[in-house]
Write a structure and sequence with these properties.
binds zinc ion, 4-stranded parallel β-sheet, Rossmann fold, 11 helices, 2 domains, 11% strand, alpha/beta
């Protein structure tokens, strides 16, 4: 940290101490509104994780709505302004939140601390798949790191460090304790996923998904990525008929009969594929890149990962 940055941080901490003193007895009135420390998070997956870490130490604002598409969601003027007033902005990055990037750049230039989590969790790059597709995106960083819970553990450490460093008024011991507790839950998740996937025979560990969203999970748990209906690292592309033909050929060759589509989006393309392959294909829904609203099956990162693990295991062993 540079000397001026450290000075700013010390001044912020001092200011918080003064506020705490002045507020004695009228804390609620004093800390309501804009005085509370605030962390703004772009995606709802990282929003849930950040809330686990921050606990009651700061307000956490999540910009992406439940069931939204992280590749295409945008911000209102109010939400953009909220970012400007944040003590810390947490984003997934690696090109995921395409419509939010310019706002992040603007607040970063204005001096708001930002952390691009994807960059610091040992990112993978997109590779060409079995059907030879994804030529365009090959070599680009893959932003979907959350499908590997070990990388999410790394992310938890990074976010906790950033909160401690930048969010004046947040108690360091509480933040560290929250992060350690959540890390233990993630370690438990990884072990449970390994055990579940043990049920899938080696030959059946082949994934066809809506777009290229499960590369990290495949890498971590030993699955082959055969192809994707949208042969791209983003949902914003659309497949040509020759893309679909090469995918169905690769699926026939690999003996794949299950396609995993995102639960929040219509499975029209997966249905087309099913028609092409003569009805022998089963389409299974996954929560691939957004949390749902409360009570809808994937309202936390842990619940999303458990639901996907169950759906993947059942989808690949059912036939
Ligand atoms: Zn995606």
């Amino acid at each position: 940290m540079t000397a001026p940055k450290r000075l700013v941080l010390r001044l912020r901490r001092l200011l918080w101490a003064v506020i705490a003193l002045l507020c004695a007895g009228t804390v609620t009135a004093c800390v309501s509104g804009d005085d509370r420390p605030r962390v703004v998070v772009t995606t709802n997956i990282l929003g849930d994780v950040t809330r686990e870490i921050v606990g009651g130490e700061a307000d956490v604002t999540v910009l992406m709505k439940p069931n939204a598409d992280p590749h295409s969601f945008g911000l209102s003027a109010v939400e953009a302004a909220e970012m400007e007033n944040a003590d810390l902005v947490v984003l997934n990055g690696l090109g995921l939140e395409e419509n939010v990037l310019r706002h992040v750049e603007a607040v970063r230039e204005a001096g708001v601390p930002t952390v691009e989590v994807g960059k610091v969790v040992d990112p993978l790059t997109f590779r060409a798949t079995a059907d030879g597709e994804l030529e365009e995106g090959a070599g680009q960083p893959d932003p979907h790191f959350w499908t590997d819970p070990d990388r999410m553990r790394k992310a938890v450490g990074v976010i906790a460090d950033e909160v401690v460093e930048n969010v004046g008024g947040a108690d360091e011991r509480t933040v560290r304790r929250n992060a350690a507790r959540y890390d233990r839950q993630l370690a438990g998740l990884t072990a449970w996923m390994e055990k579940s996937f043990d049920r899938v025979p080696e030959d059946d560990r082949a994934l066809v998904t809506n777009h290229h969203v499960f590369g990290y999970l495949a890498d971590r748990f030993g699955f082959r990525v055969i192809g994707a209906v949208v042969p791209s690292g983003t949902t914003l592309a659309s497949p040509s008929s020759s893309d679909l033909r090469s995918l169905t050929e690769a699926m026939r060759e690999a003996g794949v009969r299950t396609v995993f589509a995102d639960s929040s989006r219509p499975g029209r393309l997966a249905d087309v594929l099913r028609t092409e392959l003569g009805g022998r294909v089963e389409v299974v829904g996954l929560y691939s890149e957004s949390l749902t609203a409360e009570g809808e099956g994937a309202d936390t990162y842990l619940r999303m990962m458990r639901a996907n693990t169950t759906a993947l295991t059942e989808g690949l062993t059912a036939h």
